[in-house]
Amino acid sequence: MIDANLMIENFPSFLGGGSGEAVLSTSDGLILTLELLFYSLLGGLALSIPLGLMRVSRNRLVSGAVWLYTYVFRGTPMLVQLFIIYYGLSQFEAVRESWAWTYLQEAYFCALLAFTLNTAAYTTEIIAGQIRNTHWGEIEAAKAMGMSKWLMMRRIVIPAALRRALPAYSNEVVMMLQGTSIAGLVTLADVTGVARRIYSDTYMPFEPFLMAGLIYLAFTFLFVWLFKLAEKRWLAYLAPRKH
Amino acid sequence: MFLQGYLPSILEGAALTLEVAAASLVVSVVLGLIGAMFKMAHSRALVWSAELYSTVVRGVPDLVWMFLLFFGGQMLINDVAERFGLGAPEINPMIAGVLTIGFIFGAYMTETFRGAIMSVPKGQMEAGAAYGMSPLRVFFRITAPQMVRFALPSFSNNWLVLVKSTALVSVIGLNDMMYKADTAKSITQEPFTVYMVVAAIYLLITTVSIVALNAMNKRYSTGVRESEL
Questions:
Q1: Do A194 and A28 form a contact (C-beta atoms < 8 A)?
Q2: What ipTM is given for this predicted complex?
Q3: Which of A4, A92, A104, A179 is the most buried (most CB within 10 A)?
Q4: Does residue B227 lie within any of the structural domains?
Q5: Percent of chain B scoring above 70 in pLDDT
Q6: In this protein, which residues make up the domain named ABC transmembrane type-1 (chain A) (predicted)?
Q7: Residue range of the domain that includes B40
Q8: For residue A89, which residues of chain B lie inside 8 Å, CB to CB?
């Protein structure tokens, strides 16, 4: 029932060989999926470290503002966030006439923006949680060494928090990999988008979607494995003792 | 008039979204319980099949599952109907959506329930068996009431993710909130307002869920002493 030839024939288009509509992106399929994933994770991580610090701030106004951001972004579907940016912003003439419009009418850029803001919200909470988990003894030791607040953050609190955030962050990475599949709903041809195109061309549902599923599954395993390695390297001190 | 009177239509969609979410939750709980029991069974084949289910389902995006099960399922039905010389019935998108989301979150629930069941002290089940209760009765009278407390945090999380997953069901033709929003968007030319309303409704569902689940958590943790740092 499953036509293996169709799967083999269309394999290159999954890897990004086909001709796409996306303008800023160089390729489609897997390359686009990984590109969206990589850039949004990178942006999200960069945003979430300062935001995580603000989230644990003693200033109620600062931590409250960050709480509101993470609450709203974690409490609504990423698809709605993407649609607000992609379809919604065009409602305002000020946006349409501004310099940003060049980017905001691009599905690729909108997806990147929505994914980044979304993962930044989740990552902020992960990092803030780990900063709060810092052992009081470490803070006291840092203070006793005469470290300033920022030096203590930079050398003691943040590095340790980031290490301890690894297991939760690996979950977030896998969730984001799967989350990028909605890019196809705003005309992009990521792995899921390519599968949908093949389906609408051939009316064969199993081959393209099974292929897409296998690609996601393979990368999920790959990421889980890489994070296991990373945890072995950076969280060795938390592992149960072996002797 | 706000959104040219499209608000009631979006609210109607919200009701359908909630229906889909609630029905999928039931499916996922049933599948999750079965999966957890399989995972703790003595038979290797059962353990292995539950392992396969929970790993494979969680490694593939929900959108891909939706396309695969909806379009693929329709084709299977067509094939079977053709073989028997019958007219193929159209899959009801509501049932397809509920089964798909339930199937996906059943995998997450499997992990939730397995962990929760393992957290109930073994002596409890042994005591039940010593009283002559059948395994099923032990489960419903002894294990189930006690595992709720351990399952709730992860269950809450799964529910919140499940609700957000329902935003995808319009791709298989359900007239949910996202579908209604799409119509309203094209007619009112106010896409931002429309999707902000949708976001607000999702946020409201999330908020109410969190409050209710916290209350439930409190209720089921009565008599449990919490350690304070």
A1: yes
A2: 0.89
A3: A179
A4: no
A5: 98
A6: 30-227
A7: 19-174
A8: 192
With CA atoms as reference, report the closest residue to A156 among A142, A170, A173: A142
Alpha carbon A43 to its chain's center: 8
Cross-chain residue pair B75–A179, CB shorter than 8 Å:
no
From the options 1.10.645.10, 3.40.1710.10, 1.10.260.40, 1.10.3720.10, give the CATH code of A4-235.
Answer: 1.10.3720.10
**For chain A, what's the residue count?**
243
Q: Which residues of chain B make contact with A83, given a CB cutoff of 8 A?
A: 181, 191, 195
How distant is the Cα of B134 from the closest Cα of chain A, in angstroms? 38
Size of interface A-B (CB pairs under 8 A): 110
Residue A150: φ, ψ to 5°? -70, -35
CB atoms within 10 A of CB B87: 8
Chain A residues with beta carbon closer than 8 angstroms to that of B79: 1
The rounded distance, in Å, linking the Cα atoms of A64 and A115 is 22
pLDDT band at A235 (very low <50, low <70, confident <90, very high): confident
Three-class SS state of A190: strand
| Closest to B166 measured CA to CA, from B10, B6, B23 | B23
Q: What one-character DSSP code corresponds to residue B41?
A: S
Contacts of A189 by beta carbon, 8 Å cutoff, 6+ apart: A18, A20, A21, A22, A28, A29, A32, A197
Extents of the domains making up chain A: 4-235
For residues A21-42, give the mean pLDDT: 79
User: What is the mean pLDDT of the segment spanning A16-35?
Assistant: 66
